Amino acid sequence: MRVSLSSLGAAAFRTAFGFGQREVAHWFPGHMAKGLKQMRASLRKVDCIIEIHDARIPFSGRNPLFQENLDVRPHLLVLNKMDLADTSKKWSILKQLERDGVKNVLFTDCLKQRDDSVKKIVPLVTELIHNASRFHREEDRSYCLMVIGVPNVGKSSLINALRRTNLKKGKASRVGGEPGITKAVLTKIQVCERPLMYLLDTPGVLPPKIENIETGMKLALCGTILDHLVGEDIIADYLLFSLNRLQRFGYVEKYELEGPCDDIQHVLKCIAVKLGKTQRVKAITGIGDVTIKMPNYSAAAYDFIRAFRKGELGKVMLDG
Ligand SMILES: Nc1nc2c(ncn2[C@@H]2O[C@H](COP(=O)(O)OP(=O)(O)OP(=O)(O)O)[C@@H](O)[C@H]2O)c(=O)[nH]1
After folding, report:
1. Is 75 helix (H, G, I), strand (E, B) or coil?
2. What pTM was computed for the model?
3. If you measure from the C-alpha of residue 156 to the centroid of ligand 1, how many angstroms do you get, rounded to a whole number?
């Protein structure tokens, strides 16, 4: 939506987000340490690692343990969900990643595959393995890749897309909108016939120490942490803050607001009214108990966050 910036006023939006006393420590579920240990144990069989991350946060929230523990093979970073990301600064993102030592990067869209990005993976990985001269298992002619990443970034979707593209076969890996769908560790799945290529699917593993609360909020906004651990109210507020900071005002039109606004309570109230999400609450008044209709703020927050994750509020780049 086009909104005249002069009409907004420079002081209309917050310039920083108040995180309060929030702690990120409890966002790391214990079973993830176990997953990482199992991945490390399987490394011997692996020729190349495909790390998947969300294209909306190319620098934030990648698990440093992947580099420390698993980075002994050729490594391809796949920035998935590019259909939801503002990639207008793609080249400066790639340059920055290269400065950080990440040389092999591919942007993908596993759902619609409009630009054939998934097709590029097998040739690229084959080249990377050949350049690394496959220092182990020279006699074995098949390739084994390991797909890693934080939860909900599209690991299973990528595996299914590779199978569709290269084998014309259907789903082998379960996909879900919530983090933590893949629980079985290291299932071996064929993704290509020539060359013969297998993939090990892995469960999403968050960094045990998220570097700061802002990184944690970006991970939460992208759906990599279960919403209830963070709180949908604060995710919705951080979303509003981010959309305004990026001047992405699609929410104004979608929810028929009068204009951009930085007050989450007001925005949620408008969303609840527009969607007819109200709840009856009892109120004690001078004339006794009465039931009144109130906007359902939780339902509105849920809708706001879901709309963002489906791309209905515009493409964003949360890093940089
Ligand atoms: N818009 C968009 N959505 C995607 C893309 N790839 C995956 N998704 C969606 O993201 C959600 C998570 O996908 P999964 O493939 O289950 O992710 P995962 O990394 O295997 O998840 P875990 O099992 O939790 O680790 C699902 O709702 C997918 O439909 C993409 O390229 N674009």
Report:
1. strand
2. 0.88
3. 7
Ligand 1 lined by 31 (C-beta under 6 Å):
no
Supply the pLDDT for residue 72.
66
pLDDT in tens, 229-245: 889 999 999 999 999 99
Measured from the Cβ of residue 273, the count of other Cβ atoms closer than 10 Å reads 15
Task: Report which protein residue has its CA nearest ligand 1's atom 13.
Answer: 154
Q: Is 222 in the pocket of ligand 1 (CB under 6 A)?
A: no
> What is residue 282's three-state secondary structure?
strand
Confidence (pLDDT) at 282: 83
Token pair listed for 100: 């950080």
Three-class SS state of 49: strand
When divided into structural domains, the chain yields a total of 2
The yes-or-no verdict on residue 302 having pLDDT over 80 is: yes
Same domain, 187 and 219: no
Binding residues for GTP are: 80-83, 152-157, 204
Distance 104 CA to ligand 1 centre (A): 21
How far apart are alpha carbons 81 and 202 in whole angstroms?
Answer: 19
pLDDT given for residue 10 in this prediction: 46
User: For residue 39, what are the domain limits?
Assistant: 29-201
Q: Are 183 and 216 in a shared domain?
A: no
Residue 106 has pLDDT above 60, yes or no: yes
Ligand 1: does its nearest atom lie under 6 Å from the Cβ of 35?
no
Q: Is the CB of 157 within 6 Å of ligand 1?
A: yes
Q: Is the pLDDT of residue 183 over 80?
A: no
Compute φ and ψ for 51, nearest 5 degrees: -95, 125
Q: Please check whether residues 87 and 140 belong to one and the same domain.
A: yes
Which CATH number characterizes residue 188's domain?
A: 3.40.50.300
